[in-house]
Amino acid sequence: MILKNQLISAFILTLPLSAAAESRWTMNTEGGITWNVAESGEKHSDHIEMSGKTVSTVLRYGVDDNGNFILNKSLVWPMLRTVPNNTHASLMRRYDWNPLDAVTINGRSVSGEKVRNISLKGTLSVKSDIDQGYYGKYELIRNYFPSTELPALVEMYGIVNKGERPLRVEIGDSRMTSTTDPSTGVTGSFVISGAVDSPGYYVINPGDTLTFSASISAVKKGAPAISVNAGTELNKRQNLVDRLMGTLVLETPDQVIDRMFAFSKIRACESIYETQGGPMHGPGGESYYAAIWANDQAEYINPYFPFTGYDYGNASALNSFRHFARFMNDEMKPIPSSIVAEGLDIWNGVGDRGDAAMIAHGASRYALAKGDINEARELWNLIEWCLKYCKGKLNKEGVVESDTDELENRFESGDANLCTSSLYYDALISASYLARDLGIKDWKKYQSEAASLRKNIEKYFGKEIGGFDTYAYYDGNDKLRAWICIPLAMGINDRATQTLDALFSPKLWTENGLLTEEGDRTFWDRSTLYALRGAYTVGETKRATDFLHDYSATRLLGEHVPYAIEAWPEGSQRHLSAESGLYGRIITEGLFGIRPTGLKSFSLTPHLPTGWDHMNLRHIRAFGSDFDIEVKRINGNKISVNIIEGSKKKSYKTVSGNTINIKL
Fold it and tell me: Fewer CB within 10 Å of terminal CB in the chain, N or C?
């Protein structure tokens, strides 16, 4: 057995990394990414989701065989509720409505387009060249984005005269209005409107530019129509994007990882909706809005929000935990998996998914990272209840039973799964730190319970699977599963080397990350993101960084960009929001090894990759502060670490992978 595993490990370490597909996109100097269509000369299509507080849009865009820009606009209005008012009951429509169809230039329609480039940075921007000979030569610029607060998709157009004669432009009064069937809406009919803001006749002299805009919006019937000032809305959108990209800033020698991290904050933070039940972070994907889940929100993204410094994100996190707390009960019935319809209903269609462990993990980490003692006191009751619930679900072997896991019976999870027990373990550790800072006398009991649970996880789940000394995901599992990465992310390193060998072996790893199960074709980014974080957490820095770079290059610059995705084939690789939060946690909790240990303290385990001389994380807004972490290589594996908090600076000299305890 020892010889067999040594041979497997040696084989894996010599495998070439899964090469990212040849990059279609490049990073531009404005902090975004650009597809230079004129250089590639290929037709291609893709989709991206962008969101504001009252609208979300999925833009399906591309370039056809003739070089024309193609676009289908999918719009979701989460607070315009449809019947039945369930998880998916947001008003949704797809449109090909194109304001340019009503535009003529020197008496001719816009035609003969050759798209030059398409760029992304919180907006979708398109630049095209049009040469109609005697009838005009001009550049056409398009820009699409959701309003930050209004229920509207905003479209901006620019026509730049590149010829030697004036362009005479007629912009038609293009409009479309649709009133929905009142029987399909919770409050009756909705009115959807598309309109151009400035129809009329214009002359563009050589070198000059004409700009105009359009929008698609929706309101309840009888409500005032939406008035959109496109310039104001563009400024608000750009200010939001700049704000998100300007805090929690990653600086490393790997520009691909830096840019992917910056982009991930946009998608992670933008998808929050101003519902009647308060701000609710939603996954998106034309399915999941005005609702919260124990995994996507409580477990994945809420612990990340304090690091970003985004107040609205923190408000959504606290609001979600308050909603879950409504369902605590003396009978110890499970908390619903999801609270939907702006907080008016629930979904628990597959029973207990280990939701209490998800909530306890997320709420305790959020409370610690937020650093607000009043919020911590409020959340303690929920955390304590969830821990008590999990303790009551321990089986005779001492691991947590649940009806299923977050994949909701898509794949077998047995009576007790590795994910639920691992999350419960981490929640116990975090709860001990929080209880100590709250002055709870018996706080050490949570550490004792965590130690016992860790032993039980090893006894119950520790198995040889597929030739690797790793974990069976559940009792009776005989195929490698992606979720064997979960213990690593929670700091359980008992089987770290062989588990990583299994994860990064051809049995599970593909150019799109981890397969959910050995021999299957399905992949979910969430498991890949957990695995990369876990690899750093247990000190496998080189492998983690190599695979992280490949993954980032594929997602940021490949064929489907620019964010982490949900899954395939399910959902057609939707840009669900919380996955981008998981990407961010690879950096904060993995690469830098930040582990909250109190309301104003954390342990720091920086993993400076070989070949990097530095890595910095600036404007970290966690623990009620605003501070920087600077890591610099001194010599070999020796590093210097600076913690800069305002005018205060603390310096340390240590070895990459060693832990430093920090108190702000």
Answer: N
Nearest to 365 by CA among 321, 415, 326, 419: 321
Three-state secondary structure call for residue 213: strand
Q: Compute the distance between CA of residue 141 and CA of residue 211 in angstroms, rounded to an integer.
A: 9
Q: Which residue has the tokens 């520009």?
A: 255
**What single string gives the DSSP state of each residue in 160-206?**
EE-SSS-EEEEE---EEEEE--GGGBTTS-EEEEEEES--EEEEE-T
326/382 Cα distance (integer angstroms): 9
CA nearest neighbour of 424 among 350, 364, 481, 341? 364
Contact 142, 160 (CB under 8 A): no
- Measured on CA atoms in the order 201, 207, 212, 213, is the torsion positive or negative? positive
Which 8-state DSSP code applies to residue 34?
E
CB 384 within 8 Å of CB 444: no
Report pLDDT for 468. Answer: 98
pLDDT at 5: 40
pLDDT at 257: 98
Asked whether the beta carbons of 621 and 561 are under 8 A apart, the reply is: no
Instruction: With residue 249 as reference, give the H or E element that holds it.
Output: strand 249-251
User: Which CA distances in Å does 280 have to 56, 306, 320?
Assistant: 13, 16, 7
Tokens 């910095």 -> residue: 616
- Contact at 8 Å (CB) between 167 and 106? yes
Number of other residues whose CB lies within 10 A of the CB of residue 170: 14
The Cα 428–Cα 411 span in angstroms is 27
Amino acid identity for residue 589 in this structure: E
Long-range contacts at 60-67 (CB < 8 A, ≥ 24 apart): 61/118, 61/124, 61/126, 63/37, 63/115, 63/118, 67/37, 67/113, 67/114, 67/115
Euclidean distance between CA atoms 235 and 102, whole angstroms: 27
- Residue where the block lists tokens 């030059």: 116
Count of positions (residues) in the chain: 664
pLDDT reported for residue 13: 34
Lookup result for tokens 């989701």: 49
Rounded distance, CA 453 to CA 427, Å?
11
Q: Tell me: the pLDDT tens digits for 483-511?
A: 999 999 999 999 999 999 999 999 999 98
C-alpha torsion 262→267→268→270, nearest 10 = 120
Taking alpha carbons only, the member of 334, 333, 327, 323 closest to residue 292 is 323
Residue-wise over 4-39: b if at least 16 C-beta within 10 A, else e?
ebeebbeebeeeeebebeebbbebeeeebbbbbbee
Nearest residue to 533 via CA among 521, 524, 519, 545: 545
Reported as a single tens digit per residue, the pLDDT across 627-662 is 999 999 999 999 999 999 999 999 999 999 999 999
Contacts 24+ apart (CB under 8 A), 91-96: 91/180, 91/185, 91/190, 91/218, 92/286, 93/178, 93/192, 93/218, 95/176, 95/194, 95/216, 96/71, 96/72
Point out the residues of the chain with pLDDT beneath 70: 1-21, 40-41
Q: Is the dihedral of CA 178, 179, 181, 187 positive or negative?
A: positive
Q: Which residue has the tokens 């935990």?
A: 321
- Which phi and psi angles does 238 have, rounded to 5°? -65, -40
Residue with tokens 């609208």: 55
Sheet holding 56-63, edge to edge: 44-51, 56-63, 69-81, 90-95
Three-state DSSP class for 61? Answer: strand
d(CA 338, CA 320): 10
